Batch of 3 targets.
Target 1
Amino acid sequence: MATWALLASACGDAADTPAPEAATAPAEVAEGVAAAENDEAQQEPEESMMVEAPEIREAEVAMGFNACCADTAFWNIPLELEWWDDLNITIVPSTPTYHFISGAEAIAWLRSGEGNVALGWVPGLFGTLETFAQETPPILLADIYVGYAVLVAPDSPSKTVMELVNEGMDFPDAAQAAVQQLVGADIYISPGSLEQTQYLDAFFAYLDEWWEPYQQEIPALDEEGDPLVLLGRDGEPLLDEDGNVQPIRITTNDWRNYANPQYVHDSTIVEFSAVPGRIEYAVPYSAPVLVQMMRNGWDPLINFGMMIENDPFSQQTAIANSTVGGIGLLANREWVDSNKDLAYRVLSAAFRTFEFLDDPQTRYQGWEIEADLINSHRRLSLEPEEIGTIWEQIDPSFSWEDQEALWDLDLPSYHPEIVFATQIERLKVKGVLAGDYDTQAGLEEFLLAQDLYYEMKEFKTRADALFESASGMDLSTGQADLIARAQHHYDIYNFYDALRFLEAALSG
């Protein structure tokens, strides 16, 4: 969590109900509480008092994820630990994981209606916002990937940025010298990077020539649509020689104008990297390959972490900050609209998993589950601790507690609205999207994850109030049982059903 923050400064319930339950309206909850309190004030409870429990319908959810990476393979944790039983959900297909060759295949699966939810790279959809992206919006932003790096071979004479810094150079000069070594060089990189070509731009922007041939500047915008300006370490705007503020600019330049991409899959990069002298520079697409190559002696020539820590207020780091993105849980919008109850339960499983991976008492078990899955499908040899390194340093996740900071622009955090707006503006300049495309309106519709988070937060707030009311009551055995069930669902982030059980308990 600390890394991404720097970017901006035991009960299952079965039922046969075929249709989704409607979310409890706030007014109905309040009326239920008032009625329950009036009843309790007028009579003593009877142990024989019958309270009807709400049903959690039995349902299948067609879920897709790829065993390529820690931030996609984490869905195997709730499967392995049988957490879906708590939610009365069966994940289909019935195999441990549904494999997608590419993000495009996952999107097609969702669009066809065959799939309900699938993990995918969120910014990869921006170029299709005018066509089909709104059919498969994210219902959760799971993490942010800050592990972008150019790795250099152990036998290469090239010097890394940090080696040059240790020799006495300032970081910007060291970054420029390090990147200069890449000009004209072959860089082995996954074809998957074509969905996110711009992240290497942040590195090559250290070249003097980078800023000469650009066609049009794209300002990075704040939440009000005003250009952001570079800030010094004291938080005040940095001024140029004439005393003017310096806007953060992102150009239409492209790193492929300076180096030669050699597109091969990560498995081939790993194979080539094991042969001394075979390749010199590589940009792994996935964090597991990145950490395994680093274990084998490949060092980061330059990466985002170095820039964020050592050069946080530069144009280059501004580009990095406006480039980043992460994996999200994408969904068929029609399915969500018809199955809000299932969407809430699926999201609760995600937040429960992130808590499991954060807890020192349980996280190693989670790392083991992920390492076993990734190794078996990718012919890697990751240790569980390396999965931990990925989550802590390369792919920080957004837990339930982190989610509000994503959407509240008054809280210091990585803010998708700002970052994504800049990326969409870039696509408009490049002609991928129409120049008059309404970025703000498009994002508001696309970021379904924000709406669902605040709906779940409302359920949690209402549940908190009902728990407090219940604490001052004399409860029947039936009521106490329902409240215990509510507590279980609350503890696993299923605030939707926690609220339903509480309402039933206090209005019975």
Note: The chain is about 45% helix and 10% strand.
Target 2
Amino acid sequence: MFSGIIEGMARVTAIERDLDNVHLTLACPFAGELKVDQSVAHNGVCLTVVSLGEGTYTVTAMRETLERSNLGLLRVGDEVNVERSMQMNGRLDGHIVQGHVDQTATCIDVEDQEGSHQYTFQYEANREMVSHGYFTVDKGSVTVNGVSLTVCRPTEDTFQVCIIPYTYEHTNFHAIVPGTVVNIEFDIIGKYLARMQNLLS
């Protein structure tokens, strides 16, 4: 379980393909504190640490993960938003994030608002996906590349988020431009409500 509050950025140092799996080796400030079997969210995707190196660690992404996320697009040198799992005795500063990315979205616009940045993202949407809770609501929560954000001006298949300078500088949002593919996780509460409505209808 995560909160969507990014701890830092990890840089991809190696990529190894093994059948349908991809092993990603990354370097980040807290790499030396990790242990094998720990969970770390990468651009919002929960992955298990499988080995440790000198200032690096390795995680494995399987086919399902690669198909639903942007991890398969990563290249050596890319920056990834990372967050370790939430501590039960801490504050929930973001929102409840599972680390189970639902799908990708594409940035279609970035607007500089004299200090902050407004991003517009578009994602695949249809009636079946909505019935599973894959949608956004105004002032609701959404996770973009692992960052807990508040939704603005949602439509059937788009939504906007506003990024303050701190988030812009300390996450990979500074590298997002029109055409960039990001990971999104919709609010788990909305998914449960959608599921309950389907069962009761």
Note: The first strand starts at residue 8 and ends at 18.
Target 3
Amino acid sequence: MKKSLIFALFFSLITGLAFSATMNSRVRQVPKNIQEQIFENPKDTIYDLVKFLVGNSNDTGLKIRIMHDWICDNIAYDCDVFTEEGAGPQGYETVLKKRKAVCIGYANLLAVMCQVAKIDCEIVSGWSKGFGYRGYLKEESDHAWNAVKIAGKWKLIDVTWDAGFVERRTFIKQYTLQWYNLTPYQFGYSHLPEEEKWQLLPEKQVRTPEQFVKEPYVPGVFFEYGLSFGKDSPDYTNEIHEATGFDFVNSKNGVALVANIRPEKTDEDMRNYCWTENNGKTKRYVIDVPNKNEFEFSLGARTNGVINNPYCFSRSEFEQTIVPKAKNLLASKKITQKELDLFIDSYYLIEENLRYYYREDLFDNVRNSANTKILKLLEKNTSRYENVLTVTVKAAEDYEGYGNVKMRFPQLYQNYNSASIIKVNEPLVGVLKKGSEQHFSVSMNYFSNIALIVGENNDFVFFKKNPKTGAFELDYTIPEDLKEIGVFASKDNKSYEGIFSYSVE
């Protein structure tokens, strides 16, 4: 096992990805004497621990899941790896005694537990798009994970990345099943084994190192939300020659998506540099860049109505705003003293990070409910978007970017996404010139009519449906006295709601 393996971290969760997952309750039912002795005398206790966890079950998948969950619940990532001394030996006994591990330690522990449970398990070494990955493969592999056999078929698991994440050399416990439920092909977006056979793919689907480097980093939560790539998918690094679109297919109902593009190292205003087209289950995000700087395109997802609380707050916000307001809730009798105490005690400060993190305990329903209740009363977002994809975008050598304009694309309103199919054919710009002649064309369903609303009197200028193309179209000369033109649509030809607007200069 190569030395560099100890340096692999979990980039997958650096932005706090936390798709809802339920830990198996058996991990907290381990008899007290076993739970205490496993960390004092691992060699003599490992058999008893595994025997209790897997019980008499004949379900190999369930056995592996429970052992996976127990490791996630009890072993932290060893951030000593950042020190001069390093993380040290990673045998399963050392890992249990320290209650800390790096990737090879996690893999070793699961392998030993599977051996005790008489389950086939292998340690796989390779490269990952983890912490420190910069778009190329290092000479030596840098990560380790496991392959387990269930019902005669191998399955890939990364316990390290399911246990939590690291921010500024601090491990933040945050359990997921992102790296437990993936197909081999999905797993391969982020893990490239040294031995090709451990891709577990048919010959025609096997990734080359070149393909692995080119493809984007895709965290497991991307697939948990039912997402996949459409016709035009992004690369890890994208050089564009003009406005460019990325397609994403969303197979789950109730999942909302939001896209954003922002500069990596500058403070440029990037409002309206990303545009959305809806085509049923497929969303196309059209992006452009104003200059030669590098930018990040990111995609966020959330399930409507599902609780997904913030996992941290800045120190200043928590101490100066959140806690005082929570105490005001107590004073106004909207919460109880117990709920306030549970809420405050749920967060712990990491001085180096200048953040308060939520102290995860998936089994403490009373505390978790109190936390959600208070956050809602404080009007904090309890259904936040999770970052499911981030790629780099920059102008190609022969493209100088769109230039210095107020808005690259129209201003998009929330009602726009009501239509399962909607596409602005032209003009797909943010700013219209006064006095210019414009041809407007919009393809859509859901709405039955569309109009420009212009001037102080809110005059309606209606589009007409082209019987050949099905698009709503309008030829119109932009008045000299306008600063903005709103595009409104109606389902019943009576009430109209704004869907997007143009600036006029």
Note: Residues 376 and 382 are 7 Å apart (CA to CA).
